[in-house]
Structure formats: structure tokens, C-alpha cells
Automatic annotation (TrEMBL):
SUPFAM superfamilies: S-adenosyl-L-methionine-dependent methyltransferases (SSF53335). One of its GO terms (molecular function) is methyltransferase activity. It comes from the Bacteria. The keyword S-adenosyl-L-methionine applies. Residues 45-134 form the Methyltransferase domain. This is SAM-dependent methyltransferase. Coiled coil: none annotated. One of its GO terms (biological process) is methylation.
């Protein structure tokens, strides 16, 4: 289930986070990867926050829907992007989000807000959302050797790349994996892009 202190922080300070993400500037390095690896079709932005990346995807012609656990962040998203579609759903279960329905799934720096077990379950669930041949971009903040919480209580779990890859299951192919300092946030992130097999059930 969602980490309660993390969700409380996003609900309490939603307007602050929305403005912070806007002030950071666009993550052009991530957008370049999405343009390279995503194909036209239904697209899910999981952990969409205030909708910045959802709006970018829509501007590039993707049929996109944003999902987030935080009702307050979704209010910010709907206010800032009134023409886009946003729904409440929380990792790892993503209840109500259809399996096998998406050509692309984006999950940018979200799964580190779950503990190790829940993050692995979230990774497997994200793959379930993909249609055969679909592509998942998943990333997380690199938290060093141990998990920690920030001053507002948000959890940052130190996730292991090998364990997260294993959690995705055998029906995917790794397209790209690397660690980099984000051009937007200035934080170090681990990026993993995989493609579901065409014949995956």
C-alpha cells in the first residue's frame, strides 16, 4: 500500500510541489528518451503529480491519461491542465487501471516512495499495464546505501537495480538502463526502459 507519510506530504504541500517542479524547468533529457522509445498509442503517466509530463506527452500527440495517489496533486493537475484526463490510483495495486491497455507507461521518480517489497510489486504491476510490444520507462531517485525520509516525511527507499529488473519478470527486454543527474531536478536518478514481448500474455 502507499506510504502514508509520503502521501500526506504530497496532499499537504501539493501547491508547493507543483510550483517547484515547474520552476525546475523541463526534464529535456528524459523527454528525449521518451521521444526515442515511446510509440504512438495509449499512454499512462503513473505518479503524474501536477501533470507536467502528462501535458508534455499530450503536446506530442500521445493519447495520455495521468494517474496519481494524491488527491491534492490531482487537483493541481486538473487546474493547470483542464483539458487532460487525470484519475486517482495508487501504486502498487493501481486499482481500476486496466491491464494490457497501454502502448507506453511512464513512471518517473515514484517507486522509491515505496518500501522494497511494495516497489517490486509496483514494477510488476507497471509491466502488467503494457500491451504486447509496449514500453515502460521507470525511474527512481538514488538514495545511497540506506533508505531515508526528508524533512516532510517522504520516504526514499534505496532500491537495487538488479532486484527491480528481476521484479519486472521474464517477459520484458531491457532497452536502456543508466544512472544520471537529472537535467531538471539536479538529483541522481536510475532510469530503466523495458519493452514487453510481443507475445506476452
Amino acid at each position: 500500500m502507499v506510504d502514508r507519510p509520503t502521501l500526506d506530504a504530497y496532499d499537504t504541500y501539493a501547491a508547493d510541489y507543483a510550483q517547484l517542479w515547474l520552476d525546475e524547468g523541463p526534464p529535456d533529457d528524459m523527454y528525449a528518451l521518451l521521444e526515442q522509445h515511446f510509440a504512438p498509442g495509449p499512454t499512462a503517466d503513473v505518479g503524474c503529480g501536477a501533470g507536467r509530463d502528462t501535458a508534455w506527452l499530450e503536446s506530442r500527440g500521445f493519447d495520455v491519461r495521468g494517474y496519481d495517489a494524491s488527491a491534492a496533486l490531482l487537483d493541481e493537475a486538473r487546474r493547470r491542465h483542464p483539458g487532460l484526463r487525470f484519475e486517482q490510483a495508487a501504486l502498487p495495486a493501481l486499482s481500476g487501471v486496466p491491464s494490457g491497455a497501454f502502448r507506453n507507461v511512464l513512471c518517473e521518480t515514484v517507486v522509491m516512495h515505496l518500501d522494497h517489497v511494495e516497489a517490486a510489486a509496483a514494477a510488476a504491476r507497471l509491466v502488467e499495464l503494457l500491451a504486447p510490444g509496449g514500453t515502460l520507462y521507470m525511474s527512481w531517485r538514488v538514495a545511497g546505501s540506506g533508505s531515508l525520509r526528508d524533512e516532510r516525511g517522504r520516504l526514499y527507499t534505496a532500491l537495487d537495480g538488479a532486484r527491480m529488473r528481476a521484479a519486472l519478470g521474464g517477459g520484458v527486454q531491457v532497452i536502456d538502463e543508466h544512472e544520471v543527474v537529472s537535467a531538471s531536478s539536479g538529483k541522481r536518478v536510475h532510469r530503466l526502459i523495458v519493452r514487453r514481448a510481443d507475445g506476452a500474455a
